[in-house]
Design goal:
With 319 residues, this protein is an alpha+beta fold. The protein has 3 domains: 47 residues, no CATH class; 121 residues, no CATH class; 104 residues, no CATH class. Helix content is 18%, strand content 27%. The protein has 6 helices and 16 strands. β12 and β13 form a beta hairpin. The chain is globular. The chain starts with 10 loop residues before the first helix and ends in a 9-residue tail after the last strand.
Length: 319
């Protein structure tokens, strides 16, 4: 892991001073937030001499593996479904009708506590003033807001927001400022850039994708049959799951339910719906990268909030 302080000519002295500063502040009873603020401020000169990182213009290089570091969430099938019209209507209004407003699904890269690099993140704004600081791993088809807001692993992501005249606030414990740069690009706290996710309704894919960070790695061929982290899709609506769920996306509690298989697929409401030939039904979240349209740029897509890389030259023959 990259450590700017380690490359500084006075690395040892720097660490000693920082450790002493932290110890004195803790002994005197300063809160953790104040300690962190002082340490960050003190380390700024060191970082400035070793590395420059422009988050505003950041976009992930092709082949870069990111992982959304979030608490595990329950499958959509495990959450109770509410049929009340108010719940169904509460899902983000997407598409052309929502342009120029925040309502919808947004994606960015945000640096989390303990990480030196930004992670893929999603943010959903609802038209009634509520927001969710993630996107459900299992997608938005059948998503029940009320159940999510009461689920122990999800309720902490919920908040409210206000937005008018191109600026607004997400009402978290420490309020987050929103500033619209364009209709499809916003900046949070003048730092983290998010892009409106392009609708994927009706999208058809052609090719093969893997969760492996290197889609050309020969090791992919050595995964045992039925446990390869590879999806194959055809434009006619067919798919092959070579073992994605049992190897990567599943709950690892039911190998029979997560086993490889074939069937047909559809994509809508930022959800990949898989209809297996043996009767199983699965669904996971699906988006492109940032504001890219996966209909024309599909080298990297996000399935179940995980990064999948297109395998160059791989066919889509089905069993």
């Amino acid at each position: 892991m990259y450590d700017p302080a380690a490359t500084h000519p006075h690395a040892g002295t720097f660490r000693d001073v920082m450790a002493t500063t932290e110890g004195v502040m803790r002994f005197c009873g300063f809160p953790r937030s104040a300690v962190l603020l002082v340490l960050v401020a003190a380390s700024a000169p060191v970082y400035s001499q070793t590395r420059t990182f422009d988050i505003a213009s950041f976009s992930p290089p092709e082949g870069w593996q990111t992982e959304a570091r979030q608490p595990a969430q329950s499958p959509a099938s495990a959450l109770p479904r509410a049929s009340a019209p108010a719940v169904q209507a509460a899902r983000p209004a997407l598409g052309a009708s929502s342009r120029g407003a925040l309502t919808g699904v947004w994606m960015g890269f945000k640096q989390l506590t303990g990480s030196l690099e930004p992670d893929a993140r999603w943010l959903m704004f609802f038209d009634d003033g509520q927001s969710m600081d993630t996107m459900p791993k299992w997608g938005l088809v059948g998503f029940d807001r009320l159940a999510s807001q009461s689920a122990p692993t999800e309720k902490g992501y919920w908040s409210t927001y206000t937005f008018s005249g191109g600026t607004g606030v997400i009402n978290t414990k420490i309020p987050t400022k929103i500033r619209a740069e364009t209709a499809d690009r916003i900046k949070l706290d003048d730092l983290w850039v998010y892009y409106r996710c392009v609708s994927v309704d009706g999208l058809r894919l052609e090719g093969s994708w893997t969760s492996h960070s290197d889609s050309n790695d020969p090791e992919l061929k050595h995964f045992s049959e039925g446990r390869r982290p590879i999806f194959r899709f055809a434009r006619d609506g067919r798919f092959v799951d070579e073992g994605v769920f049992i190897a990567y996306l599943g709950n690892h509690t039911n190998d029979r339910d997560d086993r490889a298989g074939t069937g047909t697929y559809e994509i809508r409401d930022f959800t990949l719906l898989l209809h297996y030939a043996d009767g199983r039904q699965k669904q996971v979240a699906f988006t492109g990268v940032l504001g890219n349209n996966p209909a024309s740029d599909d080298k990297i897509v996000y399935i179940g909030r995980a990064q999948f890389h297109k395998i160059a030259g791989r066919g889509t023959n089905h069993h």
